[in-house]
Amino acid sequence: MSEEFFWWNDEQKAIYKDVRQFVQDNFEEAEEYFWNTKFPWSLVKKVAKKGYFGVGVPKEYGGLELGATGSCIVAAQLGRLYAVGHVFTVSILAGLEQLLRFGTEDQKRTWLPKIASGEELGALCITEPFAGSDAANVFTSAIKDGDEWIINGKKRFITGAGVSDRYFIYAKTSDDKALRKQYGHITAFMVEKGRPGFSLEKINPLIGFDNVPNGYIDFDHVRIPDINRIGAVGNGWNVMMAGLNFERLIGAAVFSGLFEDVIALLFHFTKRRVQFRKTTNQFPGIQEGIAEIITKAKVSRLFSYHCAKLIDDGGEPMVEASIAKMINTEYARDIGLKAIQILGGDGLTKFLPAERILREAKVGEIVAGTTEVQKMIIYRFCAMLPFYNKPMRMRWSDEANAPIISKRESQFKGMDVTENNVLKVISHDYKINPGLYMTPDDVREDIGGGRSELRKIFEQLEQQGLIVIHRDRSGKTALVKATYDGLQKAFPKEYYRWFPDWYEDADKF
Ligand SMILES: Cc1cc2nc3c(=O)[nH]c(=O)nc-3n(C[C@H](O)[C@H](O)[C@H](O)COP(=O)(O)OP(=O)(O)OC[C@H]3O[C@@H](n4cnc5c(N)ncnc54)[C@H](O)[C@@H]3O)c2cc1C
């Protein structure tokens, strides 16, 4: 799992070696923090000193400028130090991409060097008690008062709550219903710790994230200057979206270093555990289990770096970032479960780092957009992509005596657009796709005519009970199909009959 990818540049390859060495040198200390359930401040300071927090920050603002790929490399390795990986991740997610795309030059000069130095940690604050997956529905409000904003509300599940100095938040700046519908009501702000009225409310005891503070924060008339507003008023949704692909990718990558350690643990353990006078690695089931884990580790790693490259090349890989987030966290759960099974009872103890990955994975499947939300994004965007929306119309082929996917023109093309002929088109489609409706555009493609002309004919055919119209929510004709009477009227029964050659005439009726 230690491969560098060929498309990485020399600096990315160099940081990969460097951060691996860093993890090796600090592994024991991270374990001690884990066991003592203490926040790993000294390790965080060491990470800062190495400059890793600046991995994605441009050089002119004090960073290493190694892009999404470099950020993945560092996140994946620091993830092996558990709490350190999570804190690193959230700190760079709390403003980096958002400032790069929406910050003014002054704001970049103020905040980016702070992110890069890692001297102060950052927290990303989207979630609220009543706004989780529905992230735009925030209740925290920001009201303008002269050159300042007054913020009131609560955020929850905030990783790095308390230990962070910078809080990148989203608040609503309008109650206008029309704006809320178009996400035009939220605005992004940077709030620093220490502002009067800004306090920590609670730290959550969680299934995972053992020594990472995660909690609730409270804004009680917190005043911040307008220069802390990132992006235009009401443009917070776009600011949030700008950071989300990067967030999902880095949130995914933080797991892939852990996979490497689990695999090494499994080889080590199963070569030394003897049952039925055999080391357990000789059992086919164990070998298969380890092979599955290696496969998942490699697939998720490859996909994450593919997505990182797309971002570095200036793309907006919404679908890929969601896939990376989804598969890395689902695979982490599968890998955790399988690893525990391979290790037996020892795997259930906290002495081996297998149960940890399972707990972390469960967090991963919920944080930064749940798996269900990632699937929604993947579906919705792909449903609009021309690549997946190619014409798949089928035509009857006399040569094949079967319906085949074809670009050829419909046999009805050029006929008069009359009720009878439109009914024929729709009924003929039953012969081709017996269970499908046609869209009005399918009918139009087959016979021609204008949209309103066809709409009228559909309505007349519907009134006569010859077709069924499926209407969308606004009442528009979305799909049409022939009724039984319509099929009878359009063609004789023989038209629809079809039997394979081997089928005996004697058995037909
Ligand atoms: C450990 C941890 C760290 C976190 N860190 C941060 C942080 O640093 N900053 C931050 O802002 N937030 C953070 N979060 C919050 C996290 O992003 C949210 O928990 C997450 O977005 C889900 O919101 P929710 O918990 O309110 O669940 P809900 O949104 O209430 O979802 C509950 C269930 O309903 C499903 N669901 C919701 N909507 C739909 C839909 N439309 N279709 C299908 N299913 C749906 C969900 O998939 C889920 O299964 C963190 C959470 C955890 C647990």
Class derived from helix and strand content: alpha+beta
Strand order in the largest sheet: 1-4-5-8
Radius of gyration: 30 Å
Approximate helicity band = 40-55%
Given as residue ranges, the uncertain stretches (5+ residues, pLDDT < 50) are none
Largest sheet: 4 strands, mixed
**Shape, per Cα inertia axes:** globular
Strand segment tally: 14
**What is the count of DSSP helices, taking H or I runs of 4+ residues?**
18
Query: Bound small molecules, which ones?
Result: flavin-adenine dinucleotide
Average of pLDDT: 95
In percent, how much strand structure appears in the residues? 15-25%
**What gap, in angstroms, lies between the N and C termini?**
65 Å
Brief account:
By secondary structure, this protein is α+β, with helices and mostly antiparallel strands. Helix content is 48%, strand content 15%. The strands form five sheets. The chain has a four-stranded mixed β-sheet with strand order 1-4-5-8. Strands 2-3-7-6 form a four-stranded antiparallel β-sheet, covered by helices on one side.
What does this structure look like?
The protein is an alpha+beta fold and 509 residues long. Helix content is 48%, strand content 15%. It contains 18 helices and 14 strands. A hairpin with a 5-residue loop joins strand 13 (467-471) and strand 14 (477-482). The termini are far apart. The mean pLDDT is 95. The protein binds flavin-adenine dinucleotide (FAD).
Please render the helix and strand layout as text.
Blueprint: H1 10-36, H2 41-50, H3 67-78, H4 83-93, H5 96-102, H6 105-117, E1 122-125, E2 141-145, E3 148-159, E4 166-172, H7 177-181, E5 186-192, E6 198-203, E7 214-225, E8 229-230, H8 236-253, H9 256-270, E9 274-275, E10 278-279, H10 284-312, H11 318-343, H12 345-348, H13 355-364, H14 371-384, E11 394-397, E12 402-405, H15 419-432, H16 440-447, H17 451-463, E13 467-471, E14 477-482, H18 484-490
Parallel strand pairs: 1-4
Antiparallel strand pairs: 2-3, 3-7, 4-5, 5-8, 6-7, 9-10, 11-12, 13-14
The structure holds flavin-adenine dinucleotide (FAD).
The site of flavin-adenine dinucleotide (FAD) has 22 residues, from strand 1, strand 3 and helix 14.
